[in-house]
Design a protein that fits this description.
Pfam families: MOSC, MOSC_N. By secondary structure, the protein is of the alpha+beta class. The chain has one domain (32-335). It has six helices and 20 strands.
C-alpha cells in the first residue's frame, strides 16, 4: 500500500511538471506581427509628445536616461490641476496645453515652452510628496508634489490668460508606490481579469503603457472617408505605434514582446473627446471625428461584448510591464 501511494504521488508530480513545461514552452512560442515604428513620451500629462528613438521601460512608464547629470525624461510625471477644486485638468478643457513641451536640463531644472509664451525654467521640487491630493478620473485621489508659484502663474496664463487658477504637480523619481486603480473600478475586475495595480503609471490615466497599431488607424480612416481629415496614431496619444499588423489584431493579443521587454495586454483603451483635438493643430474636429465613426463599429459592447463603458469607442490597448528593459525604434514586435 505504501509503495502504491508513493507511486501515485510521483506520477502526479510528473504530470504537473509536464504540464508546466508544455505551458512554458507555449508561452515562449513567439510570432512576429510587426515592428515598432514610433516611441512617444509625454512628460507633461496633456502636454506635447516627444518622439524618441529608444527608451527604458520602467514600472511607472517610459524613461530616457539622462546625459551630463540632467533630470531624466519620464512619462506623465507632471500634471496640471485646478487650484481651488483640487482636481486634474487636461487638454479636454484647455486644448492649448498640447503645445507645451517639457525639457530637462543638467541644472536639475526643467524648461517648459509654448509657441505663444516665453519659456520658463524651474527647479524640480523637493517638498513633501502626498501632503496634498488631487482628484483624477473615477474620483481617484492622486498624490502630488507642487512645483511652486512661478510655474503655476506661467501655466495659468498659457491655459486661461489669467495668472492664477492652475498649478503644476510632479511625481518624484524616487517614489515607487503604486496606485490602487482596481479599487476605483470594481465592476471591471471580473471582466478584465488581467488588470493589476502593478500596471499603473504615475499620472497616466490607467496604465503605464498604451499601444496603437498603424493598420487599425488606417482602416479607421478608410471608414471615415473624408479626404480633408485623416486620423493619426498620435491623436490617440500612445507610447508605442506598431506597423505591419492586421487591423485590430491587437484586440486579441495576450503577451507582447518588444526588444528586451515583455508586456501583458490587459484592457482595451476607451477613447474620449481628446482624440478629436488634432495633435498638430490643437483644434477640435468640426465633425467630431474620429469618435463619430468609431461609434458606428468599435464600441466596448461591439468589440468586447461587455456593458462596462459599453457605448464608448475603443482604439488601442493598455499593456502592463512584466520586467524592465529597453526598447528601440525598429524592434520587431512579437506576440504569444
Amino acid at each position: 500500500m505504501a509503495k502504491d501511494w508513493q507511486w501515485k504521488v510521483a506520477l502526479a508530480a510528473i504530470s504537473v511538471a509536464a504540464v508546466t513545461l508544455i505551458y512554458s514552452q507555449r508561452r515562449r512560442r513567439w510570432k512576429a506581427v510587426g515592428k515598432l515604428s514610433k516611441i512617444c513620451i509625454y512628460p507633461l500629462k496633456s502636454g506635447r509628445f516627444k518622439e524618441i528613438s529608444s527608451a527604458e521601460c520602467t514600472p511607472l512608464g517610459l524613461r530616457v536616461p539622462s546625459e551630463d547629470g540632467a533630470v531624466m525624461l519620464r512619462d506623465r510625471v507632471f500634471m496640471i490641476y485646478d487650484e481651488e477644486a483640487l482636481e486634474m485638468v487636461s487638454a479636454r478643457k484647455y486644448p492649448t496645453l498640447i503645445f507645451i513641451t517639457c525639457q530637462p536640463t543638467n541644472r536639475k531644472t526643467v524648461i517648459l515652452s509654448h509657441p505663444d509664451k516665453k519659456e520658463i525654467e524651474f527647479p524640480i521640487p523637493s517638498g513633501k510628496f502626498g501632503e496634498v491630493t488631487v482628484r483624477m478620473w473615477f474620483n481617484e485621489q492622486m498624490k502630488i508634489m507642487d512645483c511652486g508659484d512661478e510655474v503655476a502663474e506661467w501655466i495659468s496664463e498659457v491655459a486661461t490668460g489669467s495668472r492664477k487658477g492652475l498649478r503644476l504637480s510632479y511625481w518624484p523619481e524616487e517614489e515607487t508606490e503604486r496606485r490602487d486603480v482596481l479599487a476605483k473600478r470594481p465592476l471591471e475586475v471580473p471582466v478584465f481579469t488581467k488588470m493589476s495595480n502593478n500596471y499603473s503609471g504615475a499620472y497616466s490615466d490607467f496604465a503605464s503603457y498604451l499601444l496603437v497599431c498603424q493598420s487599425s488607424v488606417d482602416d479607421l480612416n478608410e471608414k471615415i472617408g473624408d479626404p480633408e481629415y485623416k486620423a493619426h496614431p498620435l491623436d490617440f496619444r500612445p507610447n508605442f505605434v506598431v506597423e505591419g499588423t492586421i487591423p485590430y489584431e491587437e484586440d486579441k493579443w495576450d503577451r507582447v514582446k518588444i526588444g528586451e521587454v515583455e508586456f501583458t495586454n490587459f484592457r482595451p483603451c476607451t477613447r474620449c473627446i481628446f482624440t478629436t483635438i488634432g495633435h498638430t493643430t490643437g483644434e477640435k474636429n468640426p465633425k467630431n471625428e474620429p469618435l463619430k465613426t468609431l461609434r458606428t463599429y468599435r464600441t466596448m459592447k461591439m468589440v468586447y461584448d461587455t456593458d462596462i463603458e459599453g457605448s464608448i469607442p475603443v482604439m488601442g490597448v493598455f499593456v502592463g510591464l512584466e520586467a524592465v528593459g529597453k526598447v528601440k525604434e525598429g524592434d520587431v514586435v512579437y506576440v504569444s
